[in-house]
């Protein structure tokens, strides 16, 4: 039996291998396979569930492909008004319109369209998954401009947590300080540890404040490079990468 036919739980799924070559996402790899564009050891395959080993040769459109061994790690200042997505049916601006990166380089978590600030991108899937997994409780810090002033009661509620955000979600306790206040608005700094969908906006809305500007200034132990302007990026330094990896080096402790 050839290796192409031997679909045992050994080796690596071919769509994951192709994504690691920087050619496409796993989903797109499946479409290429279904279109008959992919061959293993000279044989066209039709099933995306095929697994391969280091001894197998993979080609797309007849051209051999190889995985990228050196990983990419980037810090990007996401501008307001852009989606953290590869495609959008409504044709809204995408961060990947600005970033010329391989398809397997993806954002670590997301910022919603109306938010800006620090965003990591990498093709290190294991690190990205760990940094976004809620069990690791990776801190995300934001500077937020809100309408009017926070009352002492609202501040206490935010620090305590348990605020009904809607859709069955309740807020976690926040680390929060008030940076400045004026008659019409306030600037606050807050740190959260899960990063659920529009969590900051929904929580503040629940205590009576709309968000006018939201900037992520820190993710984990790495702060936004103040030399970057919206839309600019730079590669992470080796020390920064190692600092991020240290945060997820050990599995989180489970609750007894």
Blueprint (SSEs and pairs):
Blueprint: E1 12-13, H1 14-20, H2 26-34, E2 38-40, E3 43-44, E4 51-52, E5 58-60, E6 63-64, E7 73-78, E8 106-107, E9 116-122, H3 125-132, E10 140-147, H4 152-160, E11 164-166, E12 169-170, E13 175-181, E14 185-192, H5 199-206, E15 211-219, E16 222-223, E17 233-235, H6 238-247
Parallel strand pairs: 9-15
Antiparallel strand pairs: 1-4, 2-3, 2-5, 5-6, 7-9, 7-17, 8-9, 10-14, 10-15, 11-12, 13-14, 15-16
The structure class reads alpha+beta
Low-pLDDT sequence parts: 1-8
Helical stretch count? 6
In sequence order, what are the helices and strands, one letter per element?
EHHEEEEEEEEHEHEEEEHEEEH
Helical content class: 10-25%
Radius of gyration: 22 Å
Look at the structure and name the CATH superfamily of the largest domain: Pseudouridine synthase I, catalytic domain, N-terminal subdomain
How far apart are the termini? Answer: 48 Å
Strand content: 25-35%
How confident is the prediction overall: mean pLDDT? 91
Tell me the number of structural domains.
3
Query: CATH top level of the largest domain?
Result: Alpha Beta
Q: How would you describe the shape?
A: elongated
Instruction: Report the count of strand segments.
Output: 17
> Describe the biggest sheet?
9 strands, mixed
């Amino acid at each position: 039996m050839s290796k192409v036919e031997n679909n045992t739980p050994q080796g690596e799924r071919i769509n994951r291998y192709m994504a690691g070559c920087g050619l496409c996402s796993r989903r797109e790899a499946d479409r290429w396979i279904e279109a008959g564009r992919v061959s293993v050891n000279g044989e066209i395959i039709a099933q995306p569930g095929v697994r391969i080993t280091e001894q197998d040769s993979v080609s797309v459109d007849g051209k051999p492909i190889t995985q990228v061994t050196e990983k990419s790690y980037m810090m990007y200042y996401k501008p307001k008004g852009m989606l953290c997505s590869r495609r959008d049916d409504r044709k809204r601006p995408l961060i990947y319109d600005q970033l010329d990166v391989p398809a397997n380089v993806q954002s670590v978590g997301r910022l919603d369209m109306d938010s800006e600030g620090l965003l990591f991108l990498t093709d290190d899937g294991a690190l990205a998954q760990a940094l976004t997994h809620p069990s690791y409780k990776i801190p995300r810090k934001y500077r937020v401009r809100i309408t009017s002033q926070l009352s002492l009661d609202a501040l206490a509620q935010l620090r305590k947590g348990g605020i009904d955000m809607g859709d069955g979600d309740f807020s976690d306790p926040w680390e929060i300080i008030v940076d400045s206040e004026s008659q019409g608005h306030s600037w606050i700094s807050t740190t959260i540890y899960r990063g659920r969908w529009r969590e900051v906006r929904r929580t503040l809305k629940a205590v009576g404040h709309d968000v006018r500007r939201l900037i992520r200034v820190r993710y984990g132990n790495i702060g936004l490079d103040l030399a970057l302007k919206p839309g600019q990026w730079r590669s992470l330094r080796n020390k920064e990468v190692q600092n991020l990896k240290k945060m997820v080096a050990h599995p989180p402790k489970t609750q007894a």
